[in-house]
Here is the input.
Amino acid sequence: MFMDHISTLSAELSLFAAFHGERVRTYLDPSAVTFTLQLIVGVVVAAGAAVGIIISKLKKKAKDKLGIDLEKKKEVEDDIVVYNDDQNGENNN
Here is the structure.
């Protein structure tokens, strides 16, 4: 399936060059295309992470400046731990 896309793209590039009067022979190596796609995806993911970090920092600064404390209104409950011990200390399975 991936190779079909490569050959289609190669054919389209060849047709484009043919209509523009240039004689071009194109071959897109699959490893070059894979590398290019990985590069593009990596840049998009890194940019998304950077934007997320910047937004988080801006929210924190805004909360500090406006005096908003979300933790103050929360109600905290105690942890409840229940142990079930047998009367004889034996484990009856």
The two ends are 56 Å apart (CA to CA). The chain has a mean pLDDT of 80. Residues 30-66 form the longest helix (37 residues). Helices lie at 2-19, 30-66.
